[in-house]
Design a protein that fits this description.
single chain; 3 helices; 2 strands
Amino acid sequence: MSSSVIVRNPAILSGEPVFRGTRVPFKCLTDYLEHEKSLTEFLDDFPSVTREEAIAALEEARITLAAALK
């Protein structure tokens, strides 16, 4: 089983969920999408996050939400 692309560490941004190996909060990605910005715009602004990581993070969030709703 692969490890999560999103991690929480109290020493990084006070424990806010971030992309593994970065200080980029996952919330930045959801904010971009909420404000009708594209994934490409997010990736251009946060080059330390790959397209694969962003898509994996969204998939993790979808799975977590689906499990919570069961």
